[in-house]
Amino acid sequence: MRSKVIVNVPEASSTRFTHGIAHPELWLWDSWTCKSEGRYHLYCLAFARKDSEGRPTSPAQRNDFKFHIRHFESEDAGESWRDRGAVVQSTSEPNATLSDNVWSGSTHIDSDGTFLFAYTGLPSVSKDRRFLQTICIAEGADPGDVSRLPLAAVSDPLRDYDSIRAAGYFLGEREMLGANCGESGGPILAWRDPFLFRHEGSIHALWAAKAGALQPAVAHASLRRNEGGGFVVDELFPPMLLPDGDAFTQAEVPKVYFDDSNQKYWLIISACNRISEDQPDDEIVKDQRLYVSDKLRGPWIAYRGTTSVVPDIEHLFGASVMDVDFAAGQLRLIAPYTEMADSSLQLTFAPVKTVVLPEQERLATLLGRSMADGF
């Protein structure tokens, strides 16, 4: 049950953070980025290191408090960051999409220059169902301005229960959606972390979902504006399955990037084998996984052939791609440390990491083998 004690939202710090972001007032986790006018914008979830009564909080207490989405800005490609404050906060207003909490999402600059802020809104249901998640899109005029919150969710598992299940996704019993105890012996509801991108002239979204109680999947939908100017699902496609999905239970904060020069799609997820929110951290494995495909809908293959796990980034989770140089065969990742890292690093951001991609000849071999094997 959530504590009656709250955490306040600190004002933007004047500190210039280098070699990552170790914020003195905030725990930080999950991430997404966008680039505008030569500046990099980093967004993440956050809550204060002290509660409203001045007592220290800890990463393990995250679910006891309300989060906010924090905004950081860099003028030097991630070598240093400035805190620009909170951009989205949960609200106590009844019936709001984020009346209980706000979780991860993405920021996308639309073709008309509007900033679209996708996020996971958690509405208040009951103390035993605190994890009902909805997919939402807010809008603003610049990277730090979320002036228009949506009146309704783009996708709501309770409202859209039948159509979601008809598309092939797993949802537990309707009256138990969002249950703290999980679903049918598996982890909590997964309908979160929307990532927006343009594809064939339309806005599309990926988000974390399930195809079974213990089977992770990536949801995919095309979106359109309704008469009121908000976004709605135009088509909810069947679940995207991953070739090694039996190795983990949750495929979180998915993001996709297109290599125009080689006509390939790259999908990165944060994978976790958690089943219960009560599990101790030493039972949980978290890693970053990367996949490649000739098509947006897959089939996806592990980018290293034998494994999708990105090496040499131990204890990093909720990563984002800063930028990609496909010609040079590398991408630059930014990610926060998990609770399994040293206590001084937990829920702080690591410096930007460079990930080496396979050579094109190797990718062609992997993709050709995948198609021949029928994956």
Kindly describe this structure.
InterPro entries: Glyco_hydro_beta-prop_sf. This protein has one domain: Tachylectin-2, Chain A, CATH 2.115.10.20. It is about 5% helix and about 40% strand. The strands form 5 sheets. It has a 5-stranded antiparallel β-sheet, with no helix packed on it. A 4-stranded antiparallel β-sheet has the order 9-10-11-12, with no helix packed on it. The mean pLDDT is about 95.
Shape: globular
Number of helices: 2
CATH structural architecture = 5 Propeller
Question: What's the CATH topology label?
Answer: Tachylectin-2, Chain A
Main sheet: strand order: 1-5-4-3-2
- Average pLDDT confidence is 93
Question: Unreliable segments (pLDDT under 50, ≥5 consecutive)?
Answer: none
Q: Largest sheet at a glance? A: 5 strands, antiparallel
The SS-based structural class is mainly beta
Helix content: under 10%
Number of domains: 1
The first-level CATH class is given as Mainly Beta
User: How are helices and strands ordered from N to C?
Assistant: EEEEEEEEHEEEEEEEEEEEH
Strand content: 35-45%
Span from first to last CA?
A: 43 Å
What is the total tally of β strands? 19
Blueprint of the fold:
Layout lengths: L15 E3 L7 E11 L2 E10 L19 E7 L5 E10 L11 E9 L5 E8 L11 E7 L20 H6 L25 E8 L2 E11 L2 E11 L5 E10 L9 E10 L4 E9 L13 E8 L7 E2 L17 E6 L4 E5 L18 E4 L3 H14 L2
Antiparallel strand pairs: 1-5, 2-3, 3-4, 4-5, 6-7, 7-8, 9-10, 10-11, 11-12, 13-14, 14-15, 15-16, 17-18, 18-19
